[in-house]
Each structure stands twice: as C-alpha cells, then as structure tokens.
TrEMBL record:
Any one GO MF annotation of this record: antiporter activity
UniProt superkingdom: Archaea
Name of the protein this chain belongs to: Potassium/proton antiporter membrane subunit, CPA2 family
Record organism: Halogeometricum borinquense (strain ATCC 700274 / DSM 11551 / JCM 10706 / KCTC 4070 / PR3)
Keywords: Membrane, Transmembrane, Transmembrane helix, Transport
Annotated family: Belongs to the monovalent cation:proton antiporter 2 (CPA2) transporter (TC 2.A.37) family.
UniProt-listed GO biological process terms: proton transmembrane transport
Amino acid sequence: MAADLLELGQLFVVVAVTGAIALRVGLSVIPLYVIGGVLAGPFVAGRLGLPYVENGEVVTLFAEVGIVLLLFFLGLEFSLDRLLESRTRITRSGVADIAVNLPIGIGIGLLLGWSVVESLLLGGIVYISSSAIITKSLIDLGWIADPEAEPLLGTLVFEDLFIAVYLAVVTSLVLGGDGIGSIGRSLAVAFGFLGILLVAVQYGNRLFARVLDVSGQEAFVLRTLAVVVPIAGAALALGVSEAVAAFFVGMGFATSGHREKIEHLLTPVRDVFGAVFFFWIGVGTDPTLIGAAAVPLVLAVVLTTPAKVVSGYLGGRVYDLSKRRSLRVGVGMVPRGEFSLVIAALAASGTTPIMREVIPAFAVGYVLVMSAIGTVLM
C-alpha cells in the first residue's frame, strides 16, 4: 500500500511539473503529460535504476476514469435533439473523414505484406482521432465557443459511433470467433446496450434532472459520478466502448438543466483524471520497441497528417465555414489517442507476431507523435 501511494505521489509530481513547463512555454499540456509518463515509467526511469511508476491497476483505473469523464464532458456539448438536427452534416463530414483516412492505414498494411485483419487494425488506428485530446485542446485553447467546434465535435461523434461497430467486428476477427455468428452477437450486444442508453437519453430528462436535484456540492458531484462511472463500467464489461457510453450519458445530462453546474464543479475532477490518462499513455510506452515499427510509423505520419487536415477541411466546408476556419478544423482533427491504443491492446491479444508486437509498438509511437503534432498545429 505504501509503495502504491508513493508511486501515485510520483505520478502527480511529474504531472504537476510537466504541466508547469507547458504553461511556461505556451504549449498544450497533453504531449508533455505523455512524455512525462514515458520518462517516469519502467522503460526509462526503471532501466536507469531510478524510482518509477508502474503501469499497474491503480494508474490504469484512474486513466479509465479520465477517459470516461473527458467523453462525458464531450457529450454535455450535445443534446440528442441537436445531434438529430445536425445528422446530415455529421454524416457528410464523417463519411468524408472515413473515406479519406481509413483506406490509408489499410493500404499501408497491405503494402507491407500484412494480412487483411492486420491491415484493418492498422487502418482503425490511423483513422480514429482522439476525442479526449481534441476535447481537452478545444477547452484549453478557447476553441469550444468558436464555429470550428461544431464540425470538430460532429465528426468526433460520427467516429465514436463508427468505432463501436468497428470494435465489435475486429474483436471477433482477432479473437477467432465463429465467423459471422460471433460478429453478429457482438454487434447485437453493442447496439442493444447503446440503444437502451439512447432511449434513456431521449425520454429520461426528468430522471436525469431529479438525480442531480440536490443542494450540496459534494452530493451533486457524487451523484453525477454515481451515474456515469457505473454505466461506463457496464458498457466495458459487455464489450462496448466505455467512452462511447460516457458520451451518451453526457448527452442525457445536457438537457437536465444542470449542465453548467456539472461543468463548474466537475471540471477540476475531469482535469485531474484526464492528466492521469495522458500520463498513462506514456507509462505504457517502451521507446526501444518503437524502432521495430519504424517503417509503418514513418509512412503513417507522413501520409495521415495531411490526410486528416484535408478530411477535416472538407468537414468544415460541409458546415459552411470559411476556408481559414475549415483549415483550423482540419488541423484540429490530427491528434490520435485513446481509441488507437484500445485497438492496439486488442491487437496484442491476437495470434500473429505483427498483432502481438509490431502493431502495439506502432500505436504507442504513432499516438505520441500525432498527439504532439496535432496539439502544436492547433
């Protein structure tokens, strides 16, 4: 217990120092949190014989809460009615996004002689932008109130919904399920759970409002967490993305009449756990393994950075933004993060060396590079 507490203390020291450096030099804190995690983790500090933070259960659990709260706050920016009203634009920008970016990753894999499943995994990693990093950057840079925020958030919504289907399919392929039947069951569970959440969001306004109808700030915060965290946990237990579930819960609270109070009281909580999430990305990164994936990594960075800018630009034009604002949407979509790592973790449970070694090494290097490039471009 004492060792765990010391590690947690070291984590917060590193996060505080890297955050201070980011503020001093005027950069986003996100890539520095990741780099801090790399330096303080077992693969750098540990190999140098220094005290280090392990990628253990406590840090992983805190990181899970971080991604849940980041996506919950993203959901607060959308009501279901607003989502339905913008469905045409969201679909058009989302289709442009997937049509430009997913084939690039699949093509790189096939070019290197990988199997179709391995290439499909690579395609997902390079396609999906980081909802957590982009949401955090929008807030930190003050873009959340700008016109660029709507196409950015709309495209992220499309990606998050698509990734729920994608994960159900590739999970069955990687784990060797019984073909179409296994994929069908996974999709049925995912859509069933998310369908229940959508019904709750649509018709549970009074329930969401009554849950938070309490005067004390402590009780208010605890009740909010008592709704979003268990639902996200249930989703994860059923094989559904906890981040997507948290997003839907956020949409439910968006029309409860308590949105501003939630943002006021839970923003510090979100930022603390969010910092741990980005630190956790670094802790799990072994810099020496990135070299094994150098070829696909270089290809992916060179090809997918401008590709995301182009697809984001097209999304901005769908929302009738000016060329300059559309370009800002494009650079805003560049960061990759949590879902890329989720796909990599799934690949690591596969049977081939490329799945178990190359793809995870590629993913951590790719996320580190793209999160840095994306936040600096923004």
